[in-house]
Amino acid sequence: MVERRWSVLIVAACVAWGLLSACGRNTASPNNEERSKAPDSSAVESQATPPDTRPVVVTFGDSLTAGVAGRSYPDDLQDLLDQHGLKYRVDNQGVSGDTSTDGLARIDNVIAEHPALVILEFGGNDGLRGTPIEATRKNLEEMMDRLKAAKVPTVLLGITLPPNYGVDYVKPFTEMYPALAKQYGLKFMPFLLQHVYNMPGMMQPDGIHPSGAGNRIVAQDVFTLIGPLLAARR
């Protein structure tokens, strides 16, 4: 009799242990059906953020375009476009330290975006390094040739150099931009920093790059240049 009771207790214990194990498995991991019903966070995010289908304006250049501290002029340019109801997206493809050679190496990435407009700004770093003007001009011509072949509208932003580089270098360097604009029939700005250079509070301590306040003025100058072009396209 004792042996029979002992056997019954063992069987009951085994049954109870089996039920507990089964419950533990169910709470630890959902079955395949439950997993398939779980929402896909990436799908939810893509539904919540529709793609930006606005035409693209590419700002293409060196650190004067990329910005070195705080907001860049393309950031402020985007605000101006929005404020004037011009539905374009500014894509800042400025890279600090880039020369015209680097720009030429990246031009195909710009064309691949099929932009509505390219704002081209290169040459400053070439000049600061004393690169032969003929080499800089050749690179700029090649970039503009490729943009023209791709039927991408372009505007040109000019730059100049400090006078200590010598008149024999600074003068032909500065004259290169209006000559290129005339050669390719482009709208252009002779000197990107024309309203901020050497102005109190408008430049960074390095004397080369605009401050936040300076970039807002630069953006306004660029907007004045391109606004009519974008309005006409609209």
Descriptors:
Rossmann fold; 234 residues; disordered N terminus; five-stranded parallel sheet; single chain; 10 helices; alpha/beta; 2 domains
Describe the structure.
By secondary structure, the chain is an alpha/beta fold. It folds into two domains: 47 residues; 178 residues, Rossmann fold. It is built from ten helices and five strands; from the N terminus they run H-H-H-E-H-H-E-H-E-H-H-E-H-E-H. It has a five-stranded parallel β-sheet with strand order 2-1-3-4-5, with helices on both faces. Strand 4, helix 9 and strand 5 form a beta-alpha-beta unit. The termini are far apart. The N terminus is likely disordered.
Which helices and strands occur, and which strands form pairs?
Layout: H1 2-28, H2 32-37, H3 41-48, E1 56-61, H4 63-66, H5 73-83, E2 89-94, H6 100-111, E3 117-121, H7 124-128, H8 133-149, E4 154-157, H9 167-184, E5 187-189, H10 212-233
Parallel strand pairs: 1-2, 1-3, 3-4, 4-5
| CATH C-level name of the largest domain | Alpha Beta
| Apparent shape | globular
Number of helices: 10
Number of domains: 2
Number of strands: 5
Brief sketch in words of this structure:
This protein is α/β, with parallel strands linked by helices and 234 residues long.
